[in-house]
Write a structure and sequence with these properties.
There is one protein chain. The protein has one domain: 2-Layer Sandwich (Transcription Regulator spoIIAA), CATH 3.30.750. The protein is of the alpha/beta class and 153 residues long. It is built from 5 helices and 9 strands. The N and C termini lie far apart (67 Å). Helix 1 runs parallel beside helix 2. It is globular, with a radius of gyration of 16 Å. The strands form 2 sheets. The protein has a 7-stranded mixed sheet. A two-stranded parallel ribbon has the order 5-7.
Amino acid sequence: MTRPRAARDVPARRENGIGQFERARPGADQRRLLATAQRPRPPLRGAGLLVVELRGDIDLAAVVHVRPWLDSVAALPARLYIVDLRPTTFIDSTGLGMVLRFRERVTRGDMDFGLLCTRRVHRLLRAHGAWDVLRPAATLGEVFAGRSRRSAC
């Protein structure tokens, strides 16, 4: 009798100089991509921008594995870190807590933070009182516009 394979983390592969995080499913040969971090192509590259894209279900099961990877991303040099939640299919309060923790680590180092998300995430942000803290946007242009308004004050 063989024992089922345990889920395992796959080391981050280098992609665009940053990396990605995959999670292998137990008993399956498929890997599920949970998160990527990349520096955008020019002309945005000169802006010191780092985009973290979260995908799929961001719940307790995913957060346990993505959080350490996200902490290592926060240590990378950038002036503006953006978390893109648009590709997520589900996010719960644990996932929101991970995003808030990432924001806190980034802003503690005097860097800027932006959040991209769709309307379905807005309800969660309002219910948890995180709307004013995270100031979500729908596009990169809205993130840059909000950043320039804050610097002008």
